[in-house]
Design a protein that fits this description.
Two copies of one chain form a homodimer.
Chain A lengths: L4 H19 L12 H8 L3 H13 L3 E4 L5 E4 L8 H9 L7 H6 L12 H16 L3 H5 L4
The structure holds a DNA duplex (30 and 30 nucleotides).
Chain lengths: 145, 145
Amino acid sequence: MMISTKGKYALQTMIDLAQQAQMCACEDTECTCVSLKAIAERQNISLKYLESIAALLNRGGLIKSTRGKDGGYRLAKPAEEITVAEVMAITEGSLAPVSCLDTCSDGQCVHADGCLTLPMWQKLDAVIDEFLSGVTIRDILERRI
Amino acid sequence: MMISTKGKYALQTMIDLAQQAQMCACEDTECTCVSLKAIAERQNISLKYLESIAALLNRGGLIKSTRGKDGGYRLAKPAEEITVAEVMAITEGSLAPVSCLDTCSDGQCVHADGCLTLPMWQKLDAVIDEFLSGVTIRDILERRI
DNA sequence: ATAATCCCTATTATTTCAATAGGATTAGTA
DNA sequence: TACTAATCCTATTGAAATAATAGGGATTAT
């Protein structure tokens, strides 16, 4: 499995936040704050687990938090400017299809020169990244994909 | 990680077999038999682990075995007719990027209808399969990729 | 003050991965 | 026939990653 529940939940969270922001009709950007409790219930995810995922997204700059009562999270930028690739990079780390890809590409693998398979894995990695970089949260939300 | 060492080693093995068959200049198809011991040494893989991987490829119909002394394995069909996708399907099982993909696609997920992300994961899965289905052992061997 | 929320560190249960172990079976060869 | 080198088969294990869980601390609106 390339993408664990962590990345899957993170994406669900981003979509949920985008959805809730959309629903809010008023002009106050602060009122689009959504609590993890609400997301956890809607998406059926453990609240405590979700907290650790939200922390990653927050540190990664994809969401912003408001602490204290009535606090919560909101998207740090418009849904059409956030790609699935960004969300995965922050929560899953590398999406390299094989483990040696990162080190081999860095020239740390002594066999990289003669390795027949490396170029193929690199190409696959590029294909995946290209696809995920082309899909935004907005695309998913509006069922454009 | 999408592809474990099992799939990686399996591909290395297929390439090794193709390479050795190429090297054999005689007409006797049986003489292209390559022992796992030789592959394990060349590819630096544990022999015992390789045995279990070769068993999968054998049952999957990608290689053929000859038992007893001077036995070994050989490709079941020409290298240009074996794709990386086949090798991965046999050794890794599903390459579904997220765990729910297989069950959701089978209509076993009660939420699949309203699931916004399912189409995206399905598309990613298709993109990966399309790429790997387009690469043959021969392509890799001749550095065409 | 209180309650609701985010924030932080540590621990644990489960599963998967990667390999190891120990033989049984088969076939070529002296 | 005995010997050897190979595939074949089942079970076990050690290590790592995954997916939570636990217990609180800090912050803020009311």
